């Protein structure tokens, strides 16, 4: 199942910066009317604006963007290889719909950002990678004619959780299976065709396009000094379709989620963290807790361990099975969590899961096992009362209908 998110207006919190108003896709004339034309930039000027803005990546790791831009440009100069830039719109995370929504409503903002990143790094090739039908994006590229310094190629990646991992993406662009590879050297040194490659989430690039137009101070006028700017979030709340909103960093979570009817909140998506609702009520949106931009408020009548078990099964099935942690560790943890999710004798299963989590962490070629372990550990802590009840043969949940979206396998 793919999440079909509605784009909800967010005037309550701030005027949306990234999403076209009214939920209507912006063609190029409308885009220029709204934001103004994009002028050409000297790479140093753009790097400085990116650094001063404090823009961080929106693909999960919140890495400062200017550092990646600078290191790809530098690797290009050092190796004599012309860099490649890739806009990552894969969004293999089943609970996330923010990148698809952004690409549907404001494709030119992403394409502007990609072209700016190409200018800043001196790239010779630019790709926009997406999971879904790319027809409207090809039309958007065609609409731009020869405005861009280098042409953008739109490519489709397989619908898989791992496809958007940066090395899987560069493998795919090289005609190989879209699977992660060992990160040494990293793709910013050797990526597509062995050239230094910048892989950047589409939302990050869209923010860059606005920073180039309006400056770092404007970008910082939303958010907090430590987490400046706004961010797209996919919200899952009981009784509503998932929806995508744009909110400033620093906004209290209770402004976005109905925490009074919630037992726990999943922050950051399936590589993220479960937090008890009472604790979530004290938190604000930060780059650190938002991961891939997913927030899910688990209804109080559902079973947290059962939800986690369904997600873990998906994560284990989605792993490429290339490395030990994914080959044996994740399936074992997922199967054990299935036992924990059902009321009945648990034996040493909880301790086993904790031990196995420690054994897989940091041992994969990519961060898939680490992200999965983060989810497991937070579930063991947040749902400790539910797991105790299960061990005594009870479950407090009254509704076993699945809440979090997990594709059928
Ligand atoms: C298993 C896995 C899946 C990932 N999937 C995506 C994805 O779908 N989209 C994305 O932008 N980043 C994804 N990432 C992160 C990318 O590897 C990369 O860090 C990101 O695209 C960099 O862009 P950013 O710095 O703008 O966030 C994934 C990482 C892992 C470990
Ligand atoms: S850690 Fe898992 S997902 Fe990552 S490359 Fe190895 S087998 Fe694949």
What does this structure look like?
Its cofactor is [4Fe-4S] cluster; FMN. This is NADH dehydrogenase. InterPro entries: ComplexI_51kDa_subunit, Nuo51_FMN-bd, Nuo51_FMN-bd_sf, Nuop51_4Fe4S-bd, Nuop51_4Fe4S-bd_sf. By secondary structure, this protein is α/β, with parallel strands linked by helices. It has 3 domains: 15-220, Rossmann fold, CATH 3.40.50.11540; 230-299; 304-391, de novo design (two linked rop proteins), CATH 1.20.1440.230. The protein contains 16 helices and 10 strands. It has helices at residues 28-35, 43-53, 65-79, 98-105, 107-121, 135-143, 166-173, 202-214, 216-220, 277-280, 287-290, 304-318, 324-341, 349-360, 368-382, 384-391, and strands at 6-7, 84-89, 125-130, 152-156, 197-201, 230-236, 243-248, 262-267, 273-276, 294-299. Helix 12 packs antiparallel against helix 13 (324-341) and helix 13 packs antiparallel against helix 14. The longest helix is centred in the C-terminal third of the chain and has 18 residues, at 324-341. The chain is globular and about 65 Å long. The N and C termini lie close together (9 Å). Mean pLDDT is 93; it is low at 8-12. The protein binds flavin mononucleotide and iron/sulfur cluster (SF4).
């Amino acid at each position: 199942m793919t999440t079909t998110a509605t784009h909800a207006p967010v005037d309550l919190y701030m005027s949306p910066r990234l999403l076209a108003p009214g939920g209507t896709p912006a063609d190029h004339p409308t885009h220029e009317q709204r934001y103004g034309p994009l002028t050409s930039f000297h790479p140093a000027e753009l790097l400085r604006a990116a650094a001063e803005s404090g823009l961080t990546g929106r693909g999960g790791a919140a890495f400062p963007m200017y550092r990646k831009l600078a290191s790809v440009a530098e690797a290009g100069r050092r190796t004599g290889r012309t860099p490649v830039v890739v806009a990552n719109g894969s969004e293999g995370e089943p609970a996330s719909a923010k990148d698809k929504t952004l690409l549907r409503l404001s494709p030119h903002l992403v394409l502007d950002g990609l072209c700016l990143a190409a200018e800043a790094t001196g790239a010779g090739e630019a790709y926009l990678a997406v999971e879904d039908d790319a027809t409207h994006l090809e039309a958007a590229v065609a609409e731009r004619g020869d405005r861009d310094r280098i042409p953008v190629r739109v490519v489709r990646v397989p619908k898989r959780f791992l496809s958007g991992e940066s090395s899987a993406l560069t493998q795919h662009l090289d005609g190989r299976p879209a699977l992660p590879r060992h990160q040494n050297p990293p793709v910013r040194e050797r990526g597509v065709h062995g050239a230094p490659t910048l892989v950047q989430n589409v939302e990050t690039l869209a923010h860059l396009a606005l920073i180039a137009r309006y400056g770092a101070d404007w970008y910082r006028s939303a958010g907090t000094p430590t987490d400046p700017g706004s961010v797209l979030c996919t919200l899952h709340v009981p009784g509503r379709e998932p929806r995508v909103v744009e909110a400033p960093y620093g906004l209290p979570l209770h402004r976005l989620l109905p925490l009074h009817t919630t037992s726990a909140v999943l922050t950051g998506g399936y590589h993220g963290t479960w937090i008890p609702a009472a604790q979530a009520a004290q938190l604000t949106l930060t780059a650190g807790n938002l991961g891939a931009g997913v927030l899910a408020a688990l209804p109080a009548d559902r079973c947290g361990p059962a939800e986690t078990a369904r997600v873990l099964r998906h994560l284990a099935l989605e792993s490429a099975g290339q490395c030990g942690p994914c080959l044996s560790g994740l399936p074992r943890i997922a199967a054990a969590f299935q036992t924990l999710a059902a009321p009945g004798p648990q034996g040493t299963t909880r301790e086993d899961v904790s031990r196995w989590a420690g054994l897989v962490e940091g041992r994969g070629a990519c961060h898939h096992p680490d992200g999965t372990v983060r989810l497991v550990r937070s579930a063991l802590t947040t749902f400790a009362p539910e797991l105790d009840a299960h061990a005594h043969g009870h479950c407090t949940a009254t509704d076993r209908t699945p809440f979090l979206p997990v594709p059928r396998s």
